[in-house]
Every structure is written in structure tokens, then in C-alpha cells.
């Protein structure tokens, strides 16, 4: 695992573009994408870059159950407005939150991932260590499934909605087993509210109680942090594992 700490989120976004560029140069054409506040700046930078994704496939991690792509808080809407409208991809996939059968949709989505192996997967991390919408306790072998969102995730994500009661209580998410299939993973985390989860994920024991800890087992992970998100990492660990980029 490579851990990079930069001064602030803006620097991290630029660093993220470099990682995208490098992956593309080495043949990456299928990108696993995330939503939430974390990658917004990265997508802004990608939109302003000269990178061309018209021969690429985008496969997102998750979608709220019950929101269609025209709902401003749906992840489809987020992806269209933050990236796809400005930087078209050949194909873009998100789970369908309006699918009549969640079970059929999950099988279909697993098939999409299996037939388009992800070269570079972008991840954010929840305050409880979730990746995608895989909440604590999710088996590391899980594939795409419906998840009941925890009260802490609903509360954290309510900042994007009018109020907490508007946040859907379920989502469709790639499982941890799917995420681990990606050839390369870039986990980004910013701000003090992520510091505890980052510390546990990177330096704690690998446990299903903290989904992101599984990344310690993946052969090709880069973690990109701002100073605030890195603040609780023990100094001896930092000395041994962290590269500061200023
Ligand atoms: O980047 P944010 O908004 O803090 O969210 C962190 C993570 O939570 C999710 O939004 C799911 O709640 C993920 O998609 C994201 O990576």
C-alpha cells in the first residue's frame, strides 16, 4: 500500500489526476468510480484535463434505492453533472435504483463488472469505514447487494438532502468482493471527520467491522490523504509508510 499525504484537497485532486493519467498511459480503459463529496474535486480536475475517455468504460459503486437518474441526489445525476456530461465515456454504468427486482439488478451488475474488469477503482471512505455502501459487518466476499443504510450513514449523507427524512434508507452497492477484483485502487479521504476511520483502516486489524481495512490485503492500493485526514496516524507508522508530497 502506498500512502501519499498532501497539504490540502486541491493538491490531492491534482495528484489523483496524475494517477488517472498514469493508469491510462499503461492501458487502463475501465474505471470504477465513486460518488460523495470526496471525488468531486478530482472530477472537476479531470473535466479540465486533456484526458479523453471516449474509449473508456465507467462503472460506479452504488446507487440509492428509489431514486431515478433525474433525481438531483441520485448518483446517476451526480455522475452526469460532475463528470459524464463534460467528459463522455463510451459506456457508463450505475446500479438501477428503480429496478423492479433488486435481485435481478444485482446479478446483472455483477455480470457487468465481471465482463469489464476494472483497471482503476476510485474509493471514498465513510466515517464508519464503509467503502461503496458496504457497512460494517459486510462479508469481504460480498457481491452486489441491497443494503440497509446505517443511521450514521443516513445522518452523514443528509448533508446532501433537504433533511434526514429525505435520505433513502436502502442502496444497491457493489460488494467488497467486487471491489477487491479491481486491478488498482485509489482511496481518497479528506478532512478531520475521516481521520479515525483512516487510522483504523490503514493501521488497525483487518476486520469486517471496518470494511476499508480489507484494502491492506489488496496488492495495488494508493491512499491519498490531506493532512487533516492523516492527522491520527501514529508518527512511527507515518515515518515508515507515508510519502509527503508538497
Ligand atoms: O465522500 P463522502 O461524501 O464523505 O462519502 C464517503 C463515501 O460514502 C458514500 O457516499 C456512500 O455513503 C460513498 O460513495 C463515498 O465514497
From TrEMBL:
GO terms for biological process: carbohydrate metabolic process; glucosamine catabolic process; N-acetylglucosamine catabolic process; N-acetylneuraminate catabolic process. It holds the Pfam family Glucosamine_iso. It catalyses: alpha-D-glucosamine 6-phosphate + H2O = beta-D-fructose 6-phosphate + NH4(+). CDD domains: GlcN6P_deaminase. It is an enzyme of class 3 (hydrolase). The active site is at 62 (proton acceptor), 128 (for ring-opening step), 130 (proton acceptor), 135 (for ring-opening step). SUPFAM superfamilies: NagB/RpiA/CoA transferase-like. Gene3D superfamilies: 3.40.50.1360. Its EC number is 3.5.99.6. GO terms for molecular function: glucosamine-6-phosphate deaminase activity; identical protein binding; isomerase activity. Pathway: Amino-sugar metabolism; N-acetylneuraminate degradation; D-fructose 6-phosphate from N-acetylneuraminate: step 5/5. One of its GO terms (cellular component) is cytoplasm. Residues 21-218 form the Glucosamine/galactosamine-6-phosphate isomerase domain. Keywords: Carbohydrate metabolism, Hydrolase, Isomerase. PANTHER family: GLUCOSAMINE-6-PHOSPHATE ISOMERASE (PTHR11280). HAMAP family: GlcN6P_deamin. Catalyzes the reversible isomerization-deamination of glucosamine 6-phosphate (GlcN6P) to form fructose 6-phosphate (Fru6P) and ammonium ion. Belongs to the glucosamine/galactosamine-6-phosphate isomerase family. NagB subfamily. This is Glucosamine-6-phosphate deaminase. It comes from Ligilactobacillus equi DPC 6820. The lineage of its organism: Bacteria, Bacillati, Bacillota, Bacilli, Lactobacillales.
Amino acid at each position: 500500500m502506498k500512502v501519499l499525504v498532501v497539504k490540502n484537497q486541491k493538491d490531492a485532486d491534482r495528484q489523483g489526476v496524475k494517477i488517472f493519467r498514469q493508469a491510462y498511459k499503461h492501458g487502463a480503459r475501465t474505471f470504477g468510480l465513486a460518488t460523495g463529496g470526496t471525488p468531486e474535486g478530482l472530477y472537476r480536475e479531470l473535466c479540465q484535463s486533456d484526458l479523453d475517455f471516449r474509449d473508456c468504460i465507467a462503472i460506479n459503486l452504488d446507487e440509492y434505492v428509489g431514486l431515478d437518474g433525474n433525481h438531483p441526489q441520485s448518483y446517476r445525476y451526480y455522475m452526469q453533472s460532475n463528470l459524464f456530461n463534460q467528459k463522455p465515456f463510451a459506456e457508463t454504468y450505475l446500479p438501477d435504483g428503480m429496478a423492479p427486482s433488486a435481485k435481478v439488478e444485482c446479478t446483472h451488475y455483477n455480470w457487468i463488472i465481471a465482463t469489464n474488469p476494472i483497471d482503476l477503482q476510485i474509493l471514498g471512505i465513510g466515517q464508519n469505514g464503509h467503502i461503496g455502501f458496504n457497512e460494517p459487518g459486510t462479508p469481504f466476499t460480498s457481491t452486489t447487494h441491497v443494503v440497509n443504510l446505517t443511521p450514521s450513514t443516513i445522518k452523514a449523507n443528509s448533508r446532501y438532502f433537504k433533511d434526514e427524512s429525505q435520505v433513502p434508507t436502502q442502496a444497491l452497492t457493489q460488494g467488497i468482493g467486487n471491489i477487491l477484483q479491481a486491478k488498482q485502487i485509489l482511496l481518497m479521504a479528506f478532512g478531520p471527520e475521516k481521520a479515525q476511520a483512516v487510522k483504523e483502516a490503514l493501521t488497525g486489524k483487518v476486520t469486517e467491522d471496518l470494511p476499508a481495512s480489507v484494502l491492506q490485503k489488496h496488492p495495488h492500493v494508493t491512499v491519498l490523504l490531506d493532512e487533516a485526514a492523516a492527522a491520527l496516524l501514529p508518527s512511527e507508522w507515518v515515518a515508515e509508510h507515508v510519502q509527503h508530497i508538497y
